[in-house]
């Protein structure tokens, strides 16, 4: 099982090509970094990998086949801004249980407190909200995780807690991870390989 992106190119509408010829193969248990200056298309590329956006050129294959359009998506994307990734009209319990029901062990590992489940998204801090987005993405059918600046907005302690939890679960389940970050140290510490954008 692997994700294989070959010769990926993309443009928004009739604009110029944002990037072309991007190749990435991610195997279970592997961690690949993506880095590069702002605006070169890293987030866009992640959205293509996760099936939110269609490449203009090239193919993305999951386990040798095109990604399915419906059902639980085996490639889960975690965004930089958790407040944009949750429904403001849903309490956290509903958001958390959208895809699956995480057990207490996972909630504890991510430091999610029971009392937060009854709150609205705007009653949580960014770090608390991001823990929910991470838990939601870690369903049993998730094979690959794309962490697009997942902890950029958070303080060092929260960053470390969230990464510790994600790496522990990824290891246990032999998940592959794509890490998008401007932080060279984080990329260097976590990744087996790095792709430079731009
Ligand atoms: N929906 C859209 N329509 C048109 N242009 C877009 C759209 N989304 C993003 N862009 C543009 O595409 C370019 C790439 O954006 P993207 O977010 O993929 O870059 P990035 O490398 O992830 O940047 P950063 O490091 O700042 O997060 C930017 O110039 C952005 O303005």
From TrEMBL:
Superkingdom field: Bacteria
Pfam family, one: ABC_tran
Keywords of this entry: ATP-binding, Nucleotide-binding, Transport
Protein's name in the database: ATP-binding cassette domain-containing protein
UniProt xrefs under Gene3D superfamilies: P-loop containing nucleotide triphosphate hydrolases (3.40.50.300)
Family: Belongs to the ABC transporter superfamily.
A molecular-function term among this protein's GO annotations: ATP hydrolysis activity
Domain ABC transporter: residue ranges: 3-198
Organism of origin: Neobacillus notoginsengisoli
Keyword Nucleotide-binding: yes
GO aspect biological process, one term: transmembrane transport
ATP-binding is among the record's keywords: yes
InterPro entries reported for this sequence: AAA+_ATPase, ABC_transp_ATP-bind, ABC_transporter-like_ATP-bd, ABC_transporter-like_CS, P-loop_NTPase
């Amino acid at each position: 099982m692997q994700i294989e992106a070959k010769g990926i190119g993309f443009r928004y509408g009739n604009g110029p090509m944002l990037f072309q010829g991007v190749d990435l193969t991610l195997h279970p248990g592997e961690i690949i970094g993506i880095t590069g200056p702002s605006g070169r298309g890293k987030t866009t590329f992640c959205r293509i990998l996760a099936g939110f956006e269609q490449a203009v050129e090239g193919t993305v294959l999951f386990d040798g086949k095109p990604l399915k359009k419906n059902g639980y998506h085996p490639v889960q994307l975690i965004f930089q801004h958790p407040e944009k990734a949750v429904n403001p009209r849903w309490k956290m319990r509903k958001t958390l249980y959208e895809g699956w029901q995480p057990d207490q062990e996972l909630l504890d590992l991510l430091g999610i407190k029971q009392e937060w489940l009854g709150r609205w998204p705007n009653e949580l801090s960014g770090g608390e909200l991001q823990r929910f987005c991470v838990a939601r993405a870690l369903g049993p059918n998730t094979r690959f995780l794309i962490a697009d600046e997942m902890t950029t907005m958070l303080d060092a302690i929260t960053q470390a807690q969230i990464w510790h939890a994600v790496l522990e679960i990824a290891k246990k389940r032999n998940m592959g991870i794509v890490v998008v970050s401007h932080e060279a140290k984080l990329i260097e510490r976590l990744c087996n390989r790095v792709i430079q954008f731009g």
